[in-house]
Amino acid sequence: MRKRRRKPFLRYFTVAEANALLPELRVKLLRLQAMLQRLREEYGEKAAELLRIASTNGKYPEWSESSVAREIHRAVEELHAMGVLLRDIEQGIVDFPHLRNGREVLLCWRLGEERVEYYHELDTSFRMRKPLWED
To answer: Residue ranges of the domains in the chain?
Structure first.
């Protein structure tokens, strides 16, 4: 079985660069959360499918005429264009590609945290994050 190749990162962030983006990210994530709430109010149970589509390929099912889903898709694309990896809209979790001692890892931040203080390996998630001061 061949190992699946991942797309290269657009850029690597230093901790200082990631922290400098937090004010803008806070605004964008709060806006995304409000859009998600509107999508749920408008589409109920179908919102989950629309959100999945909006955050991946941007193609909408024929029954969808949701401008909110398209807004979400554009907002997610803005984050990706910045080099930021959106992991969870509801919790406001984002990752920043980072080089730590010569290896690729992801700086991890969640809305509500004052600064970036954690990282995790590429093959793990938010639940496995470690403090930056640990080695």
So the answer is: 15-131
Largest CA distance in the chain: 50
End-to-end CA distance of the chain, in Å?
32
- Asked if 107 and 95 count as a contact pair (C-beta separation under 8 A), the reply is yes
DSSP the chain: -PPPPPPPPS----HHHHHHHHHHHHHHHHHHHHHHHHHHHHHGGGHHHHHHHHHTT----TT---HHHHHHHHHHHHHHHHT-EEEETTTTEEEEEEEETTEEEEEEEETT-SS--EEEETTS-GGG-EETT--
Please indicate, yes or no, whether the overall pTM of this predicted structure exceeds 0.85: no
Characterize the bridge pairing of strands 130-131 and 93-100: unpaired
List pLDDT tens digits, range 12-59: 999 999 999 999 999 999 999 999 898 888 888 777 776 666 555 555
